[in-house]
Structure formats: C-alpha cells, structure tokens
Specification:
Strand content: 15-25%
CATH topology of the largest domain: Rossmann fold
CATH superfamily of the largest domain: Succinyl-CoA synthetase domains
Number of helices: 16
Number of strands: 19
Oligomer: single chain
Structural class: alpha/beta
Number of domains: 2
CATH architecture of the largest domain: 3-Layer(aba) Sandwich
C-alpha cells in the first residue's frame, strides 16, 4: 500500500547478520543481555559484537566500530548512551546497515532536548536509508528466524500470536506471563517512541506473515492517524487484531505522553475507528490473551447463536446473563435434540438452552450434548461449562477414568463440524482434561464472563469479514 515500506522490514524481522553496538562485559547491561539472548536462542545468522574496549564477548570476536566489521550487516542493535546514538547512526550509514533497533532511552519521551536528539537520529537514518525500531524500546523477538534481540530474561516459545507494544515493561510482562502459561509468539515487538517505524508499519508486515494468525497490541496513541487507519483496513481484512488501548482518562493520557511521547487523542475517536475496521478492543490484560488464543486455534462462527452445556443450574443462569448482556443469542433447543438428550440425561433435566446436565458424572453424555449442538444449524458456537471435575487432579488417580479420552473426542468435534467450542472450568487448571483440551486446540477459561467475551469477539470479527465480503 502507498506510504508503507514493508519490503525493508525484512531486515528487522529476517536479518542475515546482526551487529550489537554497545555489547558489554557487564552481565547486567542491556548490550550484554541482548547479545547473550541472540546467541542462546539459536539465531543462525552472523553476529558481531561491537565494543572498542573488548577483544571478545561470549565467545565471539569483538569489533571496535561497526565500520570495522568485515562483512555486510543487515541489522544493528544499538545500546549506547543517548548522546552517542547520532554518531553511531552515522557509522551505520557509512557501513551500509539496512535496519536498526535503538534500545537506548533519553529521547523525545524526556522533553525538548531529547526530542531534538531524536530528530537528529531520524535525519541521519533517513539520509542513509536505514529503517529503525525505537528508540526507548525493549527490542524484538521473531520465532521464524530464531531471533531474540530483546533485553529480557524470558525466551518465548514459538507460536502463532504476534504482539506489538508501546511499552517495554508491558512487553516484558507479557512475555513472562505467556511463558508461564505456555503461550507462544510468532513475533513480539517493543516499538518505543516510533521515531521512524510505527505501529502501522509492523501491522502491514504481520498481515502477510504466514507464521502469524492473530496480533495483539498494547498502545497509548498513534502519530499518524490516517496511516494507522490504512494499516488497520489492510490488516483486519486478513487477520484478527486485538487491541488494549490505554491512556483513555486525562491522567492516563498525561502518563502516556511522559512514557513514550505518544499522541493519545480523543478516546471516542479510537472507539469509532476500531469498530469501523473490526478491531477487538479490550481493557484487561488477560482478555487480550484469552481472545487471541481463541482466534489462533478456533474456526470463526457464522453468527451470534450460542448453545450452552452446563453441569449445573446456577452456571446455566450465569452463562445466560453473560452471553445475552453482550448481545449474543441463545436459541431454543430443537425438538430432535431434546429427544436425543432424553436418552442420555436424567428425566428431570431442563430441556432448554442452556442445557443443564444436572451434575452428570459420566463424560459420554457431555460429548453427546456437544455433538448434537455442534452439528445442528441452530447454533454457531458451543460453550461447555464444568466438564471433567471428577477426573484426575495433579497426581491423584482418576475417579472417572474416561474423562480425558472423551475430552479428546469432544475437542475433535471442532474440526469435524467447523464450529468453535469454548470450555469453562471454574475450579482451575489442575484437572488433567484441561491440558487435553488445550493440547488439542480448545482453549479453557476460568470464568463464564471471560469465555462470553471470547465468544463475542469471535462473532464480532466474523461479522466484520462477512460485511466486507458483501461490499465487494
């Protein structure tokens, strides 16, 4: 698209060689941590530490200056004091470096002097045709190129969720949280001040990145609103985007400006733009991942009609309120489904949607109920609440031996019928069937309200794509 230089971003995401300028002997220094992460994560390209006071670092030959590196350098990671960055960027231009990541803080986020310094760096980089990330950022992670060029103690696992953040601390928290949950990334980008490359540029690259299924984004504001909207239009026509936009109060906006020099703008404008382009906006940390996991693993529903199977009457009431309050629909059960469930459920079951299986212990009736709703055209999505609470917990023996096997069979119904299934286990993640569901692509949530938000997000984006198709 016009206004985007996506081609040059391959040197950020897919470099064949990297120089770490400011590589340090100090194990706590950013330059040391980043160099170590690049090496230990298994990057297969050439790596050149740059430090005029060292002969070697972490088993690699050191160079006194980027210009003394004997080979071409695609990407320079710069971690030197802010006042030295212009001279370093000049050296990168002379060397013919294609892209850079400026880790260093002390630019526009600190005031007029820092802003002046930042503009000088931008001018030098543009003169030399260098695109760069930052400054004032944590760095980047890219799974497909085994690149962990970030100052973090966490090495994320590979996955199909991309993450973009205007906050380095938030990005670090996200990477740690995801690692604890076993969630993988295709890419994680800390954008910093966006002096050159902006949120929009990364979205344009990720839109066509085959390793990314969904992108989550933490933002405080954008610099070029029109460019951002063009990027949203292109990205969301291909993939779902989940955004946590903060700085929506006056205090939050002031904090954002001092943090990353963000132009926060009026929050209601963001709401209008997000709705126009099918962006899923969230306000809580875990909602961002909850929704992304569903997009990454489940098919999209054809509508907003939800069938619910619950092992308790109270959960049936709670799910009804949670789903309907979000505008989702709970169609009545067709007669043929009632007749089939009469064969496997106690005679006093409720015979309506949500289906209350009245604390049935055996797992097979749950599978029967899920499959009946999945294959029936009356329902677009199925929610299963309270399955498997009598099975194996941690290292304790099974009480109901087939719970895990039936959980696998239930998960397989998603592919069989091409409909999303969302599972809720309010008792926690210690039940072995939770792992079975998640290993087979069915996310499990710990509250009915969180799961309802996920279903709403799937339905909203699906409707957006249908509207786009109708306009063509």
């Amino acid at each position: 698209m016009s206004g985007f230089d996506v081609g040059n971003l391959k040197y950020v995401f897919e470099p064949k060689s990297i120089a770490v300028i400011g590589a340090s002997r100090n194990p706590k220094a950013w330059g040391h941590v980043i160099l170590k992460n690049i090496i230990s994560y298994g990057y297969e390209g050439k790596v050149y530490p740059v430090n005029p006071k060292a002969d070697s670092l972490l088993g690699l030959k050191c160079y006194p200056d980027i210009r003394s590196v004997p080979d071409d350098v695609d990407l320079a990671v710069i971690s030197v004091p802010a006042k030295l960055v212009p001279n370093v960027m000049e050296a990168c231009v002379e060397k013919g470096v294609r892209a850079a990541i400026i880790i260093t803080a002390g630019f526009s986020e600190v005031g007029p002097e820092g802003e002046k310094l930042e503009k000088e760096v931008v001018k030098i980089a543009r003169k030399g045709g260098i695109r760069f990330v930052g400054p004032n950022c944590m760095g980047i992670f890219v799974a497909k190129t085994r690149l962990n060029a970030a100052f973090t103690a966490i090495s994320p696992k590979a996955g199909n969720i991309a993450f973009i953040s205007q906050s380095g601390a938030f990005a670090g928290t996200m990477m740690y949280w995801a690692a604890m949950k076993g969630i993988g990334f295709s890419a994680a980008i800390s954008v910093g001040n966006q002096a050159d490359l902006e949120l929009s540029d990364y979205l344009m690259y990720l839109a066509d990145d085959e390793t990314t299924k969904v992108t989550i984004m933490y933002i405080e504001g954008v610099k070029d609103g029109r460019k951002f909207m063009r990027a949203l239009e292109y990205y969301t026509s291909k993939k779902p985007l989940v955004v946590m936009k903060l700085g929506y109060t006056s205090s939050g906006a002031r904090a954002a400006r001092s943090h990353t020099a963000a132009m926060t703008g009026r929050d209601e404008i963001y709401d209008v733009v997000f709705k126009k382009y099918g962006v899923i906006r969230v306000y809580e940390f875990d909602d961002m991942f909850n929704i992304a996991l569903a997009f990454a693993n489940l098919p999209l529903p054809k509508g907003e009609r939800v069938g619910v199977i619950s092992s308790g009457g109270g959960w049936s009431v709670e799910s009804s309120d949670a789903l309907e309050s979000l505008g989702l629909k709970l169609p009545p059960l067709p007669d043929h489904i009632i007749k089939e469930l009469d064969k496997v459920l106690p005679p006093f079951w409720n015979r309506r949607n949500p289906v209350d299986v009245v604390a049935t212990v055996e797992p097979e009736p749950y599978k029967t109920a899920v499959e009946l709703l999945m294959k029936d055209p009356s329902f677009d999505t199925v929610m299963l609440i309270g399955y498997g609470n009598f099975g194996r917990i941690s290292n304790l023996p099974f009480i109901i031996p087939r719970e895990d096997a039936v959980a696998k069979e239930i998960a397989d119904l998603v592919k069989k019928y091409g409909k999303p299934l969302v599972v809720v286990n309010v008792f926690g993640r210690d039940f072995s069937n939770v792992k079975v569901f998640e290993e087979n692509g069915v996310p499990v949530y710990l509250s009915i309200q969180k799961a309802a938000k996920v279903i709403k997000a799937l339905a909203t984006y699906s409707q957006y794509l249908r509207n786009l198709k109708e306009k063509k």
